[in-house]
Design goal:
81% of the residues lie in helices and 0% in strands. It has 233 residues and is an all-alpha fold. It has one domain.
Length: 233
């Protein structure tokens, strides 16, 4: 009976991974309604851009999956604040630099690296680097991947010819909304993790949970690389 229960659990996990992979693959887009609104802008629109930034982060499963990996084994509030702050500094710099400074990168490649950032963090959580005999600087890695995630946000805005009238205000407002969305999403994640950590099965299933994160990262990276090579044909 025990083996049968375990088999059912693994089948449920595989099914969840397939569903999660399909969600992740479609994670970074801008709805047609939001796109029309962005194109119609002509002047500052602080609150609407803050809303769009928060919405993009809350529905940006690639960003959230990476952050889940980052905080998965963090228990002290000061550690959580440190790593989330490093990620925030990184993605704010490249979001503002990309959207305002015209720094460009291929969206497919950027999103593929974002997928690999999820793989990286899950691999670290599973003890992969320790098994290889070395441990990268996690703080530096989170900062660097934050820069990549910021480019991911910037490439979506670069797809549209935004009006120069009020552009700085609008991009800063969008970035502020991203931070609000990140705070709200992480609050929910921390509450869920806090509850899960009180259960006996938390550490027992931590490996499987991070394997799910890793699989999602590979799905996202593969999806984006496929798009890159198809677009190049």
């Amino acid at each position: 009976m025990t083996c049968h229960v375990q088999l059912r659990r693994w089948l449920a996990i595989v099914a969840a991974l397939c569903l999660l992979g399909s969600i992740v693959a479609s994670a970074h887009g801008v709805s047609s309604r939001d796109a029309r609104y962005l194109l119609s802008l002509d002047g500052p629109a602080v609150l609407p851009l803050m809303y769009l930034g928060a919405k993009h982060m809350v529905t940006g499963y690639d960003h959230l999956l990476f952050l889940v990996g980052v905080i998965f084994f963090l228990y002290r509030l000061k550690d959580i604040l440190l790593y989330v702050s490093l990620f925030t500094v990184g993605h704010s710099l490249t979001l503002l630099g990309g959207a305002l400074g015209g720094v460009r990168a291929n969206a497919y490649i950027v999103d593929a690296v974002i997928g690999l950032s999820i793989v990286y963090k899950a691999f670290e959580n599973m003890g992969g680097f320790k098994a290889l005999g070395f441990q990268p600087d996690t703080r530096m890695a989170v900062l660097m991947f934050g820069l990549v995630h910021g480019f991911g946000l910037a490439t979506k805005l670069q797809e549209y010819s935004l009006s120069r009238n009020g552009l700085v205000t609008n991009i800063v407002s969008f970035n502020g909304g991203v931070e609000i969305g990140q705070f709200l999403a992480l609050s929910g994640v921390l509450l869920a993790l806090g509850y899960w950590r009180t259960r006996a099965g938390y550490l027992r299933h931590a490996y499987v949970a991070n394997a799910a994160l890793m699989t999602s990262g590979f799905v996202l990276a593969g999806y984006q690389l496929t798009g890159y090579f198809m677009a190049a044909r």
